[in-house]
Amino acid sequence: MTRRGVAILGSTGSIGTATLRVIARHADMFRVVALTAFENASLLREQGEAVRPDYIGIVNPNGDSSAEWATGPDCLIEAASLPAVDIVVNAIVGAAGLQATLAALRAGKRVALANKESLVMGGDFVLSACDEGGGEIVPVDSEHSAILQCIGTRPSSEVSRVILTASGGPFRDWDADRISRATIDDALNHPTWRMGRKITVDSATLANKALEVIEAHYLFGLPYDRIDVVVHPQSIIHSYVEFVDGSVIAQIGFPNMELPILYALTHPHRVVDPAVRPFDPTSASPLTFGPVDMDRFPALALGIQAGAAGGVAPVVFNAANEAAVCLFLDGVIGFAEIPRAIASALAATSALPSGTLAELIFADAAARSHVREHNANPVSEHACP
Ligand code: NAD
Ligand code: MG
To answer: What's the whole-model pTM score?
Structure first.
């Protein structure tokens, strides 16, 4: 059997390194053809020595690069389009992942998509690139992988609703006043998942769940009134699908991103993976569920409203959130300023046009400038994009 070629974009991150572990266990099926990273040259070099890919790219070499490496942001598109690549694992964080998703789909690749921001920013453009290029999007996000697995080969006309589970993040039981005083360390202390810093903060504001609702809308073609969210602190049920006859199917397992990553590589097939911890209902017990509280987590409501409003709203929600999270992690703004900055950017940009990709990218930049101008300390420089 010929091995399928894989490009891992964002190989030095949480999903990128997990993907390398998964592929190392399935080296008979997959070969790493390309690796890219933002700036962690030393880890990228180590990974390159271990898997010997054809292509290595670094966006920001900071003077530490190897002669044969490609450099600059174009390396993402180059790696995503290489002829030897069958599957592009897009594990880049943030809006920086969009162009690579588009390029991979236009080149007819399977995109194993962790970078949900691609779909939130440019959902319609991503879906058309997929149609035009003959590519395919298979989600890595655990909730969307669960939904895909629950739907299986059933036609979408049989799906009545999806229910995304949310851990509730570290502030699930905190009152609004305490949440508003949360520190960076508090926000980075996620109860069930170890992930990159941006998505960890998004999981504390619940902006991540809003991004996932929008992601589900595009992936499964469902209107927003058929996508629900329930808080499930144990992160054992990864999501549910309700069918038109009232039957509900869930996908279940101990939280570990290696499983949805493997499934995104092998879909629609399943392969043996000895590293997966066998499921044990007794030790997973009890499983509990509760409603989401939009008042304590305003970013969730803002994001779902932005998705339903369409136009520039989703791209602005995503960009304003990214800029605000960056300022929060830099210690410039408090935790409660994140949803305020998003709301303010949404209000300020609502009249911008959204008909072309260039217009969406303009709106993304406008939202970031708005957040910086209204929140950054003018005497200090910030590297937040
Ligand atoms: P991370 O911060 O750990 O890693 C991000 C990767 O992207 C790094 O390799 C970094 O070098 C690269 N990168 C950052 N900025 C870049 C830029 N401007 N250009 C090119 N590359 C850049 O993040 P992560 O936790 O691995 O998350 C990656 C994506 O996967 C995010 O979209 C996140 O929402 C999604 N996701 C992550 C998890 C998880 O468990 N970590 C789960 C579901 C979805
Ligand atoms: Mg998720």
So the answer is: 0.97
Residue 322 lies in a domain: yes
Does residue 298 belong to any structural domain of this protein?
Answer: no
Which of the four pLDDT bands, split at 50, 70 and 90, describes residue 145?
very high
Residues 230 and 131 in one domain: no
- Residue 216 pLDDT greater than 70, yes or no: yes
- Spell out the alpha helix ranges (H) of 30-96: 41-51, 74-81
Pocket of ligand 1 contains residue 18 by CB under 6 Å: no
Burial label for 167, CB within 10 Å (0-12, 13-18, 19+), is: buried
Ligand of minimum distance to the alpha carbon of 201:
1
Is the Cβ atom of 92 under 6 angstroms away from ligand 1? yes
Same domain, 111 and 198: no
Q: What is the mean pLDDT of the chain?
A: 96
Mean pLDDT of 244-254: 98
Query: Rounded to the nearest whole angstrom, what is the distance from the C-alpha of residue 143 to the centroid of ligand 1?
Result: 17
Q: What is the pLDDT of residue 380?
A: 56
